[in-house]
Write a structure and sequence with these properties.
Order of helices and strands: HHH
Strand content: under 5%
Helix content: over 70%
Distance between the termini: 58 Å
Oligomer: single chain
Length: 79
């Protein structure tokens, strides 16, 4: 058994009650959903980093000062 803080246990029990589940099944569902989402977030982040790295390697970049100036103009920020 995983020790839970009393307030977390109460939340879990209420969550399970609302869904007509026992707390163990509800916790398993919640953990499965969380881990699926976390795995998807990780995969998307890893892909974005790889794409950025490929862009840098291929020379598809621009100077930081140019980017920051464009950002400043786009959002009306002072110099």
């Amino acid at each position: 058994m995983v020790p839970l803080k009393p307030e977390r246990k109460a939340q879990l029990e209420e969550y399970a009650r609302r869904r007509g589940q026992d707390p163990a099944a509800a916790l398993d569902d919640v953990l499965a959903a969380y881990f699926d989402e976390e795995q998807q977030d990780y995969a998307e982040t890893a892909q974005a980093v790889q794409e950025a790295y490929d862009d840098v390697k291929a020379g598809r970049t621009r100077p930081a000062a140019e980017f920051l100036e464009g950002l400043r103009l786009k959002h009306g920020l002072p110099r």
